[in-house]
Amino acid sequence: MTKAYDRVQKCYESLKDEIPFEPKLALILGSGLGDFASDLEIEGTINYADIKDFPKSTVMGHKGRFVFAHVNGLPTVIMQGRVHFYEGYKMEDVVLPVRLMREMGAKVLFLTNAAGGCNKDFVPADLMIIKDHISSLVPSPLIGENDDRWGTRFPDMSHVYDPELIDLIREASKEVGHEMKEGVYLQTTGPNFETPAEIKLAQVVGADAVGMSTTVEAMVAVHMGMRVCGISFISNLAAGMSDNPLTHEEVNENAKLVAPKFKEIVKVTLGKINEII
Ligand code: HPA
Asked: What is the pTM of this model?
């Protein structure tokens, strides 16, 4: 048994009696989107701080807990607050929560994040369906001894974001009456925002949005055979694309604007996912 696998089992043992039901889907809420859970009928919560060996998040505005709720009928575990590489954790820590939610039973991972838009057609408060990602600027979370119980040594990343789930997000956003953008998400380590020259690089390699999370979580999920989809909330235009200084406050302000639409789209999508899994 690898150490990483062993650790996930220990985390699971320490919380399994608190889990109200077996979740089918895991939803990670990005910066400014944490209040998605506030109008759900919450059936249980587990604070990260109460889980043995679990990494703790330090970013303000992240609550740091698992929330359990049926969303449009779909048994869901929600992460309110994620673990970021820029906080100083090892990649093994960053992706531990995804592995733990798989251990709880989740077969689908729905990722959300706040990101800087580097596509010239994007405006702040846009929502972008993630169609693919670039993870090459951060260490792979799969480095180290492979545990075959999770997955193969050399996993295929040709189709990280599941086409059928992407279609369901498209359908949901049509029903809600909100036009979505679609594109490629690039992960940096953070915590600094990028320079304008780095954003040019991102554009040249085909990125539409840039952020500090998500791709590594998607990769371990694919490694374990989960189906993955995701939405980026464009909280700001990336460096060099507008005259505004980049601040974490801007992320939170724009999140408030788009939160109602975001919530509706995610809820309707989860209802649709419930019909196909
Ligand atoms: N860059 C990186 N991460 C981000 C940004 C950005 O402009 N906005 C929100 N998260």
From this structure: 0.96
